[in-house]
Design goal:
Blueprint: H1 2-21, H2 29-41, H3 47-59, E1 69-70, E2 77-78, H4 83-93, E3 97-101, E4 108-113, H5 118-122, E5 139-141, H6 146-156, E6 160-164, E7 170-175, H7 176-184, E8 199-203, E9 206-209, H8 215-226
Parallel strand pairs: 2-3, 5-6
Antiparallel strand pairs: 1-7, 3-4, 6-7, 8-9
Helix pairs in contact: 2-3
Length: 228
């Protein structure tokens, strides 16, 4: 009984401190930010929690154009590519979803899920047609706010959207991971490359290279690696 009373007293004390921290209530984001910093200094919030809350405050003001992968860095597939080429792209990139582009290169005809290629890899007798396995592409403008897009992603269970500019042309793409990273920080996997690195080595014969790596840096790296 005494332990229960002690626990309730502690909870009441903690809630009172929170209430006191927000009294009087903030009138703008700048005041709210100061209150949150003070709450962290008073050990009401951890440093990580403070960083996440501050990211959320900025998040609502951000637009898709602020975080999208631009068109020139898109790993994409083309509708007339054979199965073996598509499998190679999926394996080399490590991605699970790819925008599929038509013959003109100006229109996205759908989204390819790498896992949908497996049935054709296993059943080599089946006739392959990329258009038969493409998923519908979600298209959003550059100006869409991230909080709105995240809600749409969650509601519709989508993970990728094609971004178009004001003229309706492909500007790039954005994923749900890109959005979540704005709140929780970088979500890295074994295929990610450090921001400051152009090359990540996976084995003696396998590398992942950023497409915008300067040619002279590429030549210098591999000349030294293989003594060409």
């Amino acid at each position: 009984m005494e332990a229960k009373v002690h626990a309730n007293t502690q909870q009441h004390s903690w809630l009172s401190r929170i209430k006191q921290a927000f009294s009087p209530p903030p009138k703008n984001k700048k005041q709210l930010s100061k209150i949150l910093v003070q709450a962290e200094q008073d050990n009401l919030l951890t440093v990580d929690t403070l960083g996440m809350v501050e990211s959320v405050l900025q998040f609502a003001e951000m637009q898709v154009r602020d975080i999208m992968v631009p068109r020139n860095q898109m790993v994409k597939v083309e509708e007339d590519q054979p199965l073996q080429e598509l499998l190679k792209i999926a394996i080399d990139s490590g991605h699970s979803r790819f925008p599929a582009i038509d013959e003109s290169g100006n229109e996205v005809i759908g989204i390819l899920h790498a896992k949908d290629l497996l049935q054709y890899k296993i059943d080599k007798q089946g006739k392959f047609d990329l258009t038969n396995i493409l998923r519908p592409a979600v298209v959003v403008p550059e100006s869409k706010h991230l909080d709105v897009l995240l809600k749409e992603f969650r509601t519709n269970r989508n993970h990728m959207a094609i971004v178009i500019d004001e003229y309706g042309s492909i500007a790039g793409f954005v994923t749900i991971e890109d959005i979540l990273e704005q709140i929780v920080g970088d979500i890295e996997d074994e295929f990610d490359i450090d921001e400051d690195a152009f090359i990540k080595k996976h084995s003696e014969k396998r590398y992942i290279i950023k497409a915008h790596m300067p040619l002279e840096d590429f030549n210098e790296y591999f000349n030294e690696m293989f003594d060409l």
